[in-house]
């Protein structure tokens, strides 16, 4: 049920500060798209405009269009709450609800949407934890608090929580930056599996990671500090890393700046 | 690319039925109208009741309409929002009324004569008289209490922040917290028991100061502690590394850095004890005459004056007027202290390198 | 202590253990100074503990003088006659009135305070929340006697309409029946106390809600939670212990409040079924009202009731602090 994302002319502000300007791109369904670029280039901001999380930040506001299979996320009458149901998100630091058990964490989104039957919850929680490659590690302690898990396990728990509500798109904001290499590998493997079912967009600082997991890569940059970030180019990952069409991309990838 | 027309046709999963933006305003306005109608129709006299009816109606109508149009989840969100707003309004009304009543009724007799004359020779029910004796007494009592409490409080805070480790420091911290919660009347009873009943000292302004200082100490300790903790450790280490002994480091580096915050804390503490009535009632006793000596014989006191004008008025308007005027003076004093203290805090905030 | 080296800046560095060893200059002076300074500051801390202990000891001593001569039962007598022989007095009525008025105050104030705290942190437009928080801070500074004056002269007359209405519809319960007259009852006291403790509960709760990590709220938002659901899933669970301790701080205030109760309540020494009819009393109010005509023995009896109040507030505040401290450790461990 993955969906395509079509962004056109998107500009986002923090108060009067323009964070990103005039971004247009298409994200294909059932693929992994990676956003790379130097710090402060607005790639995380752009990611957060894709499920209307940007406007949660005080002063945050957006101009432009984001079409999710022909439906504009910013159209009149669109409920941001339902947008976020369709477009799930995983954050930089694992953030399971500290007062909830592992089970309740995964079930949280389902309960919000009115699923309360125990058997149904059990099924979906198990399926989601299996989908996040976490089931075998936690099946004996589903009632323990989620904050007792290791960082990598917590992040996979958050992924399980996000996919439990069957979103169409999964956004990941540097999901591995707080994790050790082994946990990172586990998450990367998981991303490879998840793209069979979801459209995945991942922000990463790690170019090897972008090269490993993504099908397409978008490079963001800003011309100077204080200037808004822009999309420099988006192309197949292989091309971006071997033969980018813009000089700045090559400079960044080969480590000449950033 | 799709055209807007297509978007409109496929009113997909993202579009929930939404109530228009003006709906909450309309719900409130409608509820107010209905509540006034009910109030007039049923002959309810109290405006408070009108307001309560309006609030209940607004919350209920919001829920019912939202539940039908937007669904249960949105309705619950809206009911929570409206309840939170109601909470806010419910709290604002009495607080605004308090300020309004004090100012409106207080300005009646508040003038230069009122501030510069005592109640000597004025019967409780007669008009005239003033608060000079009470103002004087309060200033002396609070001043003495400050002189006792501030050194002890600041030194204790220094001990806790600069030296405090181990059980003694933990005990002091805990009991400072507990001390903050001592009812003022208990502090008054304590001084009564040992100063007046056991040591056989008489009622005096100083006895009141003792009780007030007990109430003031924990406040001073707490605020000073917070301020000292804000002083960056690098400053201390820099000074110690230069060979300056610790006590001079504290006196010359730590305290000057945090002095603005400490002064603010002390002023807030003064503002708090200035309004304390109960210990003054037990220990200073009160008088209608000017007594400039806080160490002997009963004195006047501003909060006590308010209480006595109210309690001994036997319903006389003149006494109530004086009580309100004194209350206005007291509030003005406390508020000015607060504002000045906050001004100092903002102006001399320790540079924490934010 | 070698006073003579006070000003010799170039004292030879002799390696000596201890915190002073790092200072090369004027070791003698610094050690004396440090010792005096440490003595003074530690002494102040100890003095605070001594005062706390003295409060307990002196109150207990004077209270024992009175209670030993009490011909009623101190706990259950429904009378406060310290001037007759033999004296009879007991705290039953006061304990009842104190608890009832404080419970009413808590029941009214806690939900509203939590609502305002949420309003300030999560609902109010940002431009509004700053000034409102400031005003609430100032209101916490309004002296209780002013609340008392306002309560007696403004609130009481305004409540008779509400009380008539309550009596009309709920009078059959007995608890909410009203015989008319001024609304100087325990319920009025509870309402006034609620208004008075609102600022402190609001302020502490607001601080706690403000500390809720953004990432917990965003976790709920990203799942498609409405604002209320975010509050319920992230904010309230995180802030629960903070709200509890804030409420207990407020309770401590309400239990010990004197002047506001003394001005508003029209006291009687009995327990009434109705909360709306004038009557009853609280520990602090009873002390303030009975003090002026009390003999020395009468003062001791009042001290005895004050001791009970002291112990109750000690327990309530101690519990509140322990909850706060435990929470600090908890959040520190996770930071």
TrEMBL record, chain A:
The keyword Repressor does not apply. Gene3D superfamilies: P-loop containing nucleotide triphosphate hydrolases (3.40.50.300). Keywords: ATP-binding, Nucleotide-binding, Translocase, Transport. GO terms for molecular function: ATP binding. The keyword Translocase applies. Residues 5-247 form the ABC transporter domain. It holds the Pfam family ABC_tran. InterPro entries: AAA+_ATPase, ABC_transporter-like_ATP-bd, ABC_transporter-like_CS, P-loop_NTPase, PstB-like. This is Phosphate ABC transporter ATP-binding protein PstB. It comes from Streptomyces tropicalis.
UniProtKB/TrEMBL annotation, chain B:
Keywords: Cell membrane, Membrane, Phosphate transport, Transmembrane, Transmembrane helix, Transport. InterPro entries: MetI-like, MetI-like_sf, Phosphate_PstA, Phosphate_transprt_permease. It is found in: Cell membrane. It is a multi-pass membrane protein. SUPFAM superfamilies: MetI-like (SSF161098). The chain crosses the membrane at residues 22-42, 48-67, 79-103, 142-161, 173-197, 203-221, 253-273, 323-345. It comes from the Bacteria. It holds the Pfam family BPD_transp_1. Residues 135-341 form the ABC transmembrane type-1 domain. Belongs to the binding-protein-dependent transport system permease family. CysTW subfamily. PANTHER family: PHOSPHATE TRANSPORT SYSTEM PERMEASE PROTEIN PSTA (PTHR42922:SF1). Part of the binding-protein-dependent transport system for phosphate; probably responsible for the translocation of the substrate across the membrane. This is Phosphate transport system permease protein PstA. It comes from Streptomyces tropicalis.
UniProtKB/TrEMBL annotation, chain C:
Residues 95-320 form the ABC transmembrane type-1 domain. InterPro entries: MetI-like, MetI-like_sf, Phosphate_PstC, Phosphate_Transport_Permease. It holds the Pfam family BPD_transp_1. Coiled coil: none annotated. It comes from the Bacteria. Residues 1-29 are annotated as: Disordered. It is a multi-pass membrane protein. Keywords: Cell membrane, Membrane, Phosphate transport, Transmembrane, Transmembrane helix, Transport. It is found in: Cell membrane. The chain crosses the membrane at residues 45-67, 87-120, 132-156, 176-201, 301-320. Belongs to the binding-protein-dependent transport system permease family. CysTW subfamily. Part of the binding-protein-dependent transport system for phosphate; probably responsible for the translocation of the substrate across the membrane. This is Phosphate transport system permease protein.
